[in-house]
Amino acid sequence: MTHRLFEGKQHASSYFKYRISPDHVIQQVLDFLEKQKGRPFELAVDVGCGSGQGTVLLAKHFTSVVGTDVSPAQVEMALQHAKEPNITYRQCVAEELPFADGSVDLMTAMSAFHWFDRPRFLREAHRVLKPRGCLTLLNYTVDMELSHPDCCSDTLNQVCKEFYAALHPYRSPHLGASSIELYREAFGSIPYPDKEWHECVWVKKPMPLSSYMGLVESFSSYQALLREDPQKATGLSQDICHRLMSIMKVTSAETEVVVAVKYFYLLACKPQEA
Q1: pTM of the entire structure?
Q2: Smallest Cα–Cα separation from 129: which of 108, 150, 105, 151?
């Protein structure tokens, strides 16, 4: 079954505010879809859409886009920020999608596939994709990197690594040792002849240091620590933030840094006869 870890309204709000949208990766997805299927692009479905940051990136390329998520709080957050008239949102589980057989041009799961019942979801994706329709599963690694002018990035990122290491014991066992291995396994299990694997795709975004802290605090591992020991979680976050500010020689957490996120993703095209 789908693992439900992003249910609370406050967590959904943080997710919307801090998560980094993979704009560059989306263009690669669209290029693959055009190469494999061609236009027109009619229906895209973003499964596990969360608060919709990735969903909106698809809107200008498709006649209609549907974002689905199991969490009412996430869907509510997405609806609050919905502006594109061709996007709708549906609350449902990833393994039982409300779409007809062979009706979807592109199905995406952005930083969500690892929470699904993966074999069931892949069967459901196969059912709803059109012949030559495409599936994209993407995620990013936890080892994000910071940079700041006139500051040693190695020193800065050593503190970041300590932050991630402190959260590792609170990582969901459902994810195994590394989520990238779950995606590699899925890539190997998809029987389509036309498929691609990509990793080490860096996406960089300037943001205040406080937003970087908010991004890490939106991770399921930090949220698990927060539920278990709020004081420990808050203390850890404050300590890391103060140490980063000290290295940067700044006094405000609103100081801008550049956050680099390393994405990996797979692309797969359903055969014409399947």
Answers
A1: 0.87
A2: 105
